[in-house]
Specification:
Elements (H helix, E strand, L loop, with lengths): L1 E8 L4 E4 L3 H17 L7 H11 L3 E2 L3 E2 L3 E2 L3 E4 L2 E8 L3 H13 L2 E4 L2 E10 L8 E6 L26 H17 L8 E5 L1 H6 L5 E6 L2 E6 L3 E5 L1 H10 L12 E3 L4
Antiparallel strand pairs: 1-7, 1-9, 2-6, 3-7, 4-7, 5-6, 8-9, 10-14, 10-15, 11-14, 12-13
């Protein structure tokens, strides 16, 4: 399920860091903490921790400005509306999130106060076994061979294990959310070759999240297989680090 948060900036020449994902993630986690504090005292610590893990499976978009410019590692923008999309697979938390963020009058990012104009639930997508999407925040996956206490090895989209890593990640998310193994765990994933060729293969994005450098890829893609897994990808993000603002996609509808 997905919501759109419409913000309004009333200040001329406002700016935030170009790498602002951590600021948006902090807002969601603040609401997550509020929810965990309000959980029933009869719940065991284990139950509470399991619930929090499920609620951490979300993804969100970059901010969409009416107009902006980049100046010295800052995103600069004037008065106008700003849109932000948040997607969560767990309805309980989605409803809590909508209620709590709607109660707030402003969203403050790096000292810039954005008025919360409205929060809207978007129309549900009809999922099938073959769908096309466009990426609105980079898809990233890492190698399972990475050792603990070492920097992650990000897979390139040309690596043979990229598509399988995307599928494996969706299966893990499904199990965590539904506490069951999906009946159908099939999934093929391929980026749009024509789009990639037009850009000479230059679809890589590097984004800093605090002290972490994350490598991901942005291009339209097609998936075939389990509609259940495709739904998980849409709601919680394709690939890893959805809770850091990666892997959010938008359906490409046929005209």
């Amino acid at each position: 399920m997905r919501i759109r948060i419409v913000l309004y900036n009333g200040v001329a020449n406002a700016s935030i860091p170009i790498n602002y994902n951590h600021l948006l993630a902090a807002t969601i986690y603040a609401i997550l903490r509020e929810y965990s504090h309000d959980c029933s005292p009869l719940q065991t610590d284990k139950t509470r921790q399991e619930a929090i893990k499920r609620f951490k499976m979300f993804t969100f978009s970059h901010l969409r400005f009416d107009a902006y410019r980049i100046d010295q590692e800052r995103v600069c923008f004037d008065k106008g509306y700003v849109q932000w999309y948040v997607s969560l697979p767990v309805k309980d938390f989605l409803f809590q999130f909508v209620e709590r963020i709607a109660e707030r009058q402003t969203l403050v990012l790096d000292g810039v106060s954005l008025e919360i104009d409205r929060v809207e639930a978007l129309k549900e997508v009809c999922f099938s076994d073959e769908m096309s999407f466009t990426v609105i925040s980079p898809i990233t996956v890492t190698s399972n061979n990475a050792r603990k206490n070492t920097l992650p090895r990000y897979l390139r989209y040309t690596d043979s294990g990229f598509a399988e890593a995307v599928r494996g990640n969706l299966i893990k998310k499904y199990i965590m959310i539904h506490k069951a193994i999906p009946k159908d765990n099939s999934l093929s994933f391929v980026f749009d070759k024509e789009y990639v060729d037009k850009r000479a293969g230059k679809i890589q994005k590097k984004i800093s999240f605090l002290s972490m450098e994350v490598i991901g890829f942005v291009a339209p893609f097609k998936v075939k297989g389990s509609p259940e897994l495709i739904r998980i990808g849409y709601d919680a993000g394709f690939g890893e680090k959805g809770n850091m603002g990666f892997g959010m996609v938008k359906e490409i509808t046929k005209t």
